[in-house]
Amino acid sequence: MNIFNKGDNFSLMTITQIMIFVRVAETLNFTQTAHELHMTQPAVSHAIASIENELDVQLLLRDRKKECC
């Protein structure tokens, strides 16, 4: 089985998604990441959710007070 296949659909995270994830991990803040990358906060959240769905794992712990850790 190809590690890049998820079911019958080919999926591979983009460099942009990886860059977004790295910046969120560095800042621990979705809003700050969005501002720095000239994106909306929902777009950042969607990118992280897409990665998590593709890998079938939660990568970040969310805390409404501290956004993530």
Automatic annotation (TrEMBL):
GO MF annotations in UniProt: DNA-binding transcription factor activity
UniProt name for this protein: LysR family transcriptional regulator
Cellular component, GO, one term: cytosol
UniProt cross-references to PANTHER family, sorted A to Z: HTH-TYPE TRANSCRIPTIONAL REGULATOR CZCR, HTH-TYPE TRANSCRIPTIONAL REGULATOR YBHD
Organism the protein comes from: Paenibacillus polymyxa
A UniProt-annotated Pfam family: HTH_1
Alphabetized PROSITE patterns for the sequence: HTH_LYSR (PS50931)
Domain annotation HTH lysR-type: ranges: 13-69
